[in-house]
Write a structure and sequence with these properties.
Strand content: 15-25%
Shape: globular
Distance between the termini: 4 Å
Number of strands: 14
Radius of gyration: 20 Å
Length: 406
């Protein structure tokens, strides 16, 4: 089961809304800042650990099977490195390295959920407050709550599935998308259901949540995430960009999503999530972030339980008014939490963006974290291939807890 949709654009994160433009501070037109020099993210020496060698052998095999340009990975157990590695090339003649930066996509979603839960614990907001206080121009704003934005139960259509939007991003992948354009696309479609009564994935929810968090705190979103999440966790290589630039070193991406195999590294990610949360990261930060998200490190036990199940478990799923391609069943085993996916005991995010694919997954019962990024070759399948690599690694390291995302 996966909570990503459509083809090449489906697992990425998206940007704030038409109705929110008036409440957003103006976005700077430059990169928010290159990551500071910090701890080295380098290949580990697998010579002394048979499991580390096996993990790299598995990754190498999947890389060859799927014609991947690169596989970069990090596995930790109880916060301690088991293996960090990089296979293949970033570009012809340029080896992939663990410290290379990649698009982080939906890795931002659990961060937004954490900030919301922190603010609720501080008594600054209630999860079930209507968003009309901060986003008065949003249709049905008096029915949609902050919780519904965070757990994707608002009923808003996903603009990523809109045919006109898809045509536009394929026609001009370098185009910058403003927040107001994106939510306007979602709100031009009917709601799928009464807010809060079902579940469906919509990037618009997180676009709007980012705008609401800025309005609630009076703080620009990139600063808010740095103050409350990435800073405290030491994620120095996880930074927001307001342009398509990526701080060096860069793991380059390629895709055939437009019919021709071409470089997509600097295609514009402005549509992928709220301005201020369009993140890049490296593999060491990816592993560290899922350790923190998967243990509730920045939350109280009660708030962490809410992040893992904010009320989505048991929602009805597909029915006469919402097809099975939109309203997915939410069961105790597999459901969407407050910005995170919970799947058979794993807590995870699985972003992808035009040739980039990634997964960060944490298994609490084994204290096992698996982070993988991949880039595609000419013959690579059109899916999140990082999940293939991670799934095979998990089959070796935790055979009783398969990572099955469908």
């Amino acid at each position: 089961m996966t909570f990503t949709r459509t083809t090449a654009v489906t697992a990425a994160v998206l940007t704030v809304a038409a109705v929110t433009a008036a409440v957003l501070p103006p976005a700077p037109q430059a990169v928010a800042g290159a990551p500071p020099v910090a701890r080295a993210c380098v290949r580990s020496d697998p010579a002394g650990d048979a499991r580390a060698r096996e993990v790299l052998d598995i990754a190498r095999q999947v890389k060859d099977e799927l014609d991947l340009n690169s596989v970069v990975l990090r596995v930790t157990v109880d916060g301690r490195e088991l293996v960090t590695g990089a296979l293949g090339e970033s570009m012809t003649g340029v080896p992939a390295e663990p410290d290379m930066h990649v698009r982080a996509g939906s890795v931002a979603f659990p961060f937004l959920g954490i900030v919301l839960l922190q603010l609720a614990e501080e008594g600054r907001v209630g999860l079930d407050e209507p968003v009309s206080r901060w986003l008065p121009g949003l249709p049905r704003a008096d029915e949609i709550t902050l919780r519904m934005l965070g757990d994707s139960t608002s009923g808003l259509a996903d603009y990523v599935t809109d045919p006109g939007f898809l045509a536009a991003i394929y026609a001009d992948p370098f185009r910058h998308w403003d927040a107001d354009e994106l939510v306007a696309i979602s709100t031009s479609h009917p709601f799928w259901y009464r807010p809060g009564s079902n579940w469906s994935y919509s990037h618009a929810n997180f676009v709007l949540l980012g705008a609401a968090l800025e309005k609630i705190t009076g703080t620009r979103l990139d600063h808010l995430l740095r103050e409350r999440v990435t800073g405290p966790l030491g994620l120095d290589q996880t930074v927001n960009n307001y342009t398509p630039d990526i701080p060096t070193p860069v793991l380059h991406a390629f895709t055939a999503s437009r019919g021709t195999y071409e470089e997509s590294t600097f295609w514009n990610p402005s549509w992928t999530t709220a301005p201020g949360a369009v993140l890049v990261t490296d593999i060491c930060d990816l592993a560290r972030s899922v350790e923190a998200v998967g243990t509730g490190e920045l939350l109280s036990p009660e708030a962490f339980r809410t992040q893992l199940d904010p009320g989505t478990v048991g929602l009805p799923g597909p029915g006469p008014d919402c097809p099975e391609t939109v309203c997915l069943p939410q069961t105790a085993a597999r459901h969407f939490g407050l910005g995170v996916i919970v799947s058979d005991g794993w807590i995870l995010s699985n972003p992808s963006f035009y040739g980039y694919a990634a997964i960060e997954a944490y298994l609490p019962v084994e204290r096992l974290a698996v982070a993988v990024t991949t880039t595609k070759g000419c013959a690579s399948p059109d899916r999140n291939t990082a999940q293939d690599v991670a799934g095979r690694i998990v089959d070796r390291l935790a055979p009783d807890h398969p990572l099955t995302l469908g």
